[in-house]
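REQUEST ID: PR-0412
SUBMITTED BY: lab tech R.K.
PRIORITY: routine
TASK: structure prediction, single protein chain
INPUT:
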Amino acid sequence: MRLAVIGLIIGLLIGGLAGYVTRPQSAEIKLPGVTIEITGKGPAHGGDAVTSGQMQHIGLFAAIGAVAGLAVGFLAGRARG
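STATUS: complete
OUTPUT:
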């Protein structure tokens, strides 16, 4: 069980980092009642604010990494003992 939790945490961190590094290039304009988001091709460059679409991208990658890490940790725990 400990290996599953460790795998979950490591997978979450690696997935979140991969999502942040590969987040799409995007700009967001917020007006009262209207939010416009424009997404370009290629990964975003550092220093820009993270938009809601980019947060969804990062969250999706983090969730996939967490599930993969949990599975690997669970399998490693079963093989170990």
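NOTES: The mean pLDDT is 87.
REVIEWED BY: pending
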